[in-house]
Design the sequence.
DNA sequence: GTGCATAATGCGTACAGAGACATAACCCTT
DNA sequence: AAGGGTTATGTCTCTGTACGCATTATGCAC
């Protein structure tokens, strides 16, 4: 049984991934480094919002950034998020197949 | 690049795990089936709260239940949550070790 | 230095969801 | 059928946070 502190850490981490906006940013960045302007263009969010979300992801270590002159280039080099999503995706598939079979049996 | 719908599904799933109360319930249930009274005893939450959280977990397929007379026995037979937590735990360890080494170098 | 880009923060609004209390639905026993 | 124990739901409050606007901070060119 994990300690309350560890449970809190887990939940905080999962909370980062519980927001479609952040997942979207992560997915974009996993395809390669991007600057903030491109992320604004790609997602349609406001600059301030993107900056905040990137800040959260950076503090969690899921994203890093480097300066390119006046621009900031963000990159997500960690495969963890990809792995987690793959596991969840497999799960979602199983669920849908189960539901499909139940409908067929009925 | 995942579709918005898929991103939404991912985030909804991770949102389930983003609450310490639900993670706590899952951890208790992964050690074996329990009835609601025991979960109340173990967590200190109100009966209504536990019932709602179990309902969410059940709709997501992370938990199932069976009647035992008037009582409901809940069980979490899915190893997915355990796998996800293991991945995250490995990640947390790495982060701490990095921070430790940086402190040592300074 | 001044001016001009971009990124980060202060602040306000809005909404989702946690959590508890009260109530209703459910099942068992008699 | 009636009553008692267990679980689910209606409703409320409150906190957290997403999100945008305005402002500030930061770095570059001149």
Sequence:
């Amino acid at each position: 049984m994990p300690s309350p502190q560890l449970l809190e850490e887990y939940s905080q981490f999962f909370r980062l991934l519980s927001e479609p906006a952040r997942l979207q940013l992560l997915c974009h960045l996993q395809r390669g480094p991007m600057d903030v302007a491109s992320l604004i263009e790609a997602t349609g969010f406001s600059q301030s919002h993107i900056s905040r979300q990137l800040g959260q992801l950076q503090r969690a270590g899921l994203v890093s950034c480097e300066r390119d002159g006046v621009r900031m280039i963000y990159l997500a080099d960690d495969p963890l998020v990809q792995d987690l999503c793959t596991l969840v995706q497999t799960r979602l598939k199983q669920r849908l197949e189960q539901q499909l079979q139940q409908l067929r049996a009925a």
